[in-house]
Design goal:
mainly beta
């Protein structure tokens, strides 16, 4: 006589592992409410720091680019992190390098400078 076995599988959303591209959910859990910093991927020298306000799938942020103070708006579109400033907007795919380092990509192109989480969301 054969016995039937029932196997129940529970799927739990696991945090993104290092080296993986972040999903929309990963982005929502990591960036809104956090403060990030880096070096510009435009001129490769200017330091920036930005605090991202909370939001469901969009919000606002404020920061400094060199000595210039600015505001921006952010949104999550599919698995892309998008930002708009007074003069332009851009979207990136984000790879989680480690606990405090995010690597932006434009399309398949890895940008030279990473983003650093200075203060995590909720801290």
């Amino acid at each position: 006589m054969l016995k039937q076995m029932t196997l129940a599988v529970t799927l739990v959303a696991a945090p993104v592992q290092a080296g993986e591209m972040m999903s929309a959910q990963d982005l929502m859990q990591t960036i809104p409410g956090a403060t990030l910093s880096g070096i510009s991927n435009e001129d490769y020298t200017t330091r920036w720091i930005q605090t991202y306000g909370p939001g469901e799938t969009s919000g606002t942020g404020e920061g400094t680019f060199g000595e210039r103070v600015y505001t921006s708006s952010w949104s999550i579109r599919q698995d892309l992190w998008c930002e708009s400033w007074s003069n332009r907007s851009e979207c990136w795919r984000i790879e989680r390098v480690n606990e405090t380092t995010l690597q932006p990509y434009v399309g398949q192109q890895k940008l030279p400078n990473v983003w650093t989480i200075v203060e995590p969301a909720g801290s």
